[in-house]
């Protein structure tokens, strides 16, 4: 029976309990029999009614005594006068209070004994790791505060935590077991803790029979990052001290990283080429300018072959 169905039938159960119906289960047995609550053990009623064991929990709830009465099935005739919504709300808070009491109870001698039986019966499941060989696990909470983390499973062999295999267990709060329980459990019963896996038995990644170095992935990642460059790096303007970029004002594509010829080497070559072309143009324009002004053209000027004036018909 799901938790929602049980809350809706709360009034009918109280009425049957008030009539001393023997078919009605106590609140604790009914709570632990819900699907998904297989990790919980049954707390002794004497532990719940002792206020010393509940120190600090009374400040977390508005009506702690009412919740204790609901858990222990006391003063039923008083709560029959309440509405269905109020009963459902009280029952919901009673579950949270039972879970917090459960986190304390499983740290006691009686609570550890009950959890040993469930551990030996593998009620908590087995480790999903290949090398653990289906080692039995125990529940563990990562945070003692309610509503922070769901319950996890701790493997004593590989000493790692895992999510439960069944989704219904993911709805159980990890604060109902706490982070202390698994380690105190195996310290109290050291014979139940299996041997740790030897390092030589663990899986080693290999390529063609050679083991992969642990830092190989970091080195490869750095090489990949070097090869990746932004498109803006290819469309940035040249510095001002380069004439080509200053005169044209256009954006020139840079060379790709890793090239043997850098920009500092290629730009002077471009400048020399532009200067040569400008000198050649000046030599070609000089005779035409001298003829217009009536000046004789020097005959003893040294020209390179092929640079003289051309006659166009």
Describe the 3D structure.
The protein has helices at 3-8, 10-18, 27-32, 45-49, 64-72, 76-79, 84-105, 109-120, 181-188, 216-227, 243-248, 263-292, and strands at residues 138-140, 152-154, 161-162, 206-207, 210-211. The protein is mostly helical. The protein folds into 3 domains: 3-105, Orthogonal Bundle (protein kinase ck2 holoenzyme, chain C, domain 1); 113-197, N-terminal domain of TfIIb, CATH 2.20.25; 204-287, no CATH class. The strands form 2 sheets. A 3-stranded antiparallel beta sheet has the order 1-2-3, with no helix packed on it. It has a two-stranded antiparallel sheet with strand order 4-5. Strand 4 (206-207) and strand 5 form a beta hairpin.
């Amino acid at each position: 029976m799901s938790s929602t169905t049980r809350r809706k039938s709360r009034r009918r159960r109280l009425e049957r309990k008030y009539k001393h119906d023997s078919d009605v289960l106590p609140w604790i047995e009914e709570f632990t029999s819900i699907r998904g609550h297989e990790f919980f053990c049954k707390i002794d009623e004497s532990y719940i009614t002792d206020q010393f064991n509940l120190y600090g929990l009374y400040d977390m709830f508005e009506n702690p005594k009412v919740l204790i009465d609901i858990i222990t099935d006391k003063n039923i005739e008083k709560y029959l006068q309440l509405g269905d919504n109020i009963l459902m709300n009280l029952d919901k808070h009673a579950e949270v209070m039972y879970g917090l009491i459960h986190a304390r109870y499983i740290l006691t001698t009686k609570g550890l004994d009950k959890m040993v039986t469930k551990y030996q019966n593998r009620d908590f499941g087995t480790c999903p790791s290949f090398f653990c060989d289906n080692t039995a696990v125990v529940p563990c909470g990562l945070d003692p505060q309610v509503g922070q983390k769901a319950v996890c499973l701790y493997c004593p062999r590989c000493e790692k935590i895992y999510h439960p295999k069944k989704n219904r267990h993911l709805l159980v709060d990890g604060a109902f077991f706490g982070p202390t329980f698994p380690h105190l459990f195996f310290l109290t019963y050291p014979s139940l803790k299996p041997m740790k896996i030897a390092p030589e038995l663990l899986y080693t990644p290999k390529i063609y029979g050679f083991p992969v170095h642990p830092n190989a992935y970091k080195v490869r990642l750095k090489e990949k990052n070097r090869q990746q460059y932004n498109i803006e790096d290819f469309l940035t303007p040249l510095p001002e001290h380069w004439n080509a970029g200053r005169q044209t004002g256009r954006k020139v594509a840079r060379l790709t990283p890793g090239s043997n010829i850098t920009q500092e080497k290629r730009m002077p070559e471009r400048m020399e080429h532009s200067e040569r072309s400008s000198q050649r143009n000046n030599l070609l324009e000089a005779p035409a300018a001298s003829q217009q002004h009536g000046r004789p053209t020097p005959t003893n000027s040294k020209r390179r072959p092929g640079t003289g004036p051309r006659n166009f018909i």
